[in-house]
Fold each of these.
Amino acid sequence: MSEAAVEVCLSLPNKFRRLLDENPYATFLGLEVEARADGIHYQMAFREEHVGNVLIGTFHGGILASFAEVVAALHMAETLQLNDVPECSSMTFDYVRPAFAGTLRAQPRIVRAGRRFVVVFVDIFLNDSLVSFGRFIYAR
């Protein structure tokens, strides 16, 4: 995990920090997680490893979907007090507009937590503009 991400994570519960440390892809993405009074905030800054179109400097679509999937799993693990990060059973991801270089912000929410499945929606924003959103389904 990068030093910046570790500094941001210091205010998070120990279990949440452990889940982040055990996820090498979160480190590759440069995922930053911060606990604030209004909830947990998830961000990812643009890096050269994230480029999808070098001509216009946008995030790769796979990076966006991966960012959302990691956020969904972490949000579900924290909200439902799970000890491990769950594995996604199914996902649908939609791209609204190009995500140009900048810092992305993810807003996850659990829309259904049933006995067999949990459905998590994640909206990805660049500044205040929605760039993509996804639905992630996890088996209990």
Amino acid sequence: MALTGIEIYKKLPRTNCGDCGVPTCMAFAMKLAAGQAELSACPHVSAETAAELDSASAPPIRPVTIGTGDEAFKIGGETVLFRHEKTFINAPGIGVLVTDEMSDDDVDGKIDRLNKLQYERVGLILKGNIVIAKSVKGDAGAFEALAKKVAGATSKAIALIADDPAVLSQAAKAIADKKPLIGFATESNADAMAELAKELDVPVIAKAKGIDAASELTKKLTDAGLKDIVIDTSPDNIKEALFDQVAMRRLSIQKAERTVGFPTILFPSEMTDNPIKEAMYAGTFITKYGGIIALSDIQGETLFPVTVARMNIYTDPQRPMATTQGIYEMNNPEKDSPILITSNFSLTYFIVSGELEASRAPAWLLVIDTEGLSVLTAWAAGKFVADAIGPFVKKIGIEEKIGKKQLIIPGFVASISGELEEELPDWDIVIGPREAAYISSFLKQLN
């Protein structure tokens, strides 16, 4: 049975040193009990206490770090079934699959797209994370060459997959400094794979058909001394994959079944040869509950919606998504171009900026920090009101860029126009449309 925060606190050093990154031992104990921290963060816990607390304080889904350096990412560590219960913590890695049967041009193209394709949205960079290199030929030399090629072409995390431990070993040792995720450990080669994973100190993929077999395999690997495991239940189709993902998450969180309490890896390309369906499957696995999702290729039309879905699912629902406060130039504005203002709620910003871009009308868009609240909500909370907007307009620096002081406010907050005229006496306050969809026609009439 999991220990409570008080029970864990009694076993900690209770020095309140803050070396764990949390101000007090009590706060650290509460995080451990909630699965939001790892015991290894405390450098003062004795080996005996660490052994006693390790299983009790570990998250239901073990966190596993893939890769090294700035491109390393963490999967697992989850504590809830549904994001609205608290939040999801570590977003899944999106990867591209390459094999030793592919031509150099194909491999180079996939890696190049993975390296270059990225998108900025609400201050976040959306991108892929990992190259999954797979041995199809069973040739150790060819697979080592592929591993070296991948390692030299990208700083992304790398996974190496081969059925034969000897083939895998040669490639993994050649790029050991990259700390690749290796696989597949199966029932027949578990001992050899465990030894290789321990030798290189890298995480391993446990592959078995179905949840029961995967549970038996992970127990065998953990008994051999491995902790960092990623599960592949080898589903044949989307139905099987979804069932396995949900069942393992429920078992690990609701039943504290440690043998399936590991992140997963999925290969939607093995379930369909349609790239659009593959992207749809990837979206399903982001929601329920993939750790790494290996795509057959990386293309903008599929990567963008998949990474946006990932961002939306793995954003804390208790914290609104916000755009950075500032001045945004739309369609190369000039001194006399109209000036609009809106809140920094990301959805509001993207709708307004999208309509402005579509209108092709040059304009200045001012975004004021409303703590991620929409215009009406921010107005009701006293954050999108005249005595906040006035000082913001004066300090943001827009007056240095323009020749015509005319500010267009959202029609839904027309009531603040009088007070805003008092705050900005040398400005002309114009009431804009209530809906962003009418911005284009409004600007045409304004001019």
